[in-house]
Amino acid sequence: MPVEPLSQKEVEDRLAELPGWSLDKDHLFRSYRLGSHFAATAMVVHIAQVQEELNHHSDLTLGYNTISLAVHTHSAGGAVTEKDFELARRVEDLAPGHGAH
What we know:
Blueprint: H1 8-15, E1 22-24, E2 27-33, H2 37-54, E3 59-62, E4 66-71, H3 82-94
Antiparallel strand pairs: 1-2, 2-4, 3-4
Helix pairs in contact: 2-3
């Protein structure tokens, strides 16, 4: 089933509901800082589980105590879609449990 790109207005409206997330070119982008490398690694594993559940995999970067995500939909030509926002919302829901900010 094809996934349709969101319009610029739809992206802006949805971003308003996700503090900390931004549009970087054609990706949704968010960085998190955590208390330790171990905490950051644990959150990466948790994000990977969510990505598998959604069958939607983003670029995920692990630093010493930071995580960065760049999210877009390959099957929509690299555009931002509702799938991207679903992943972003799920990551936002799990972040507090890892002490991410």
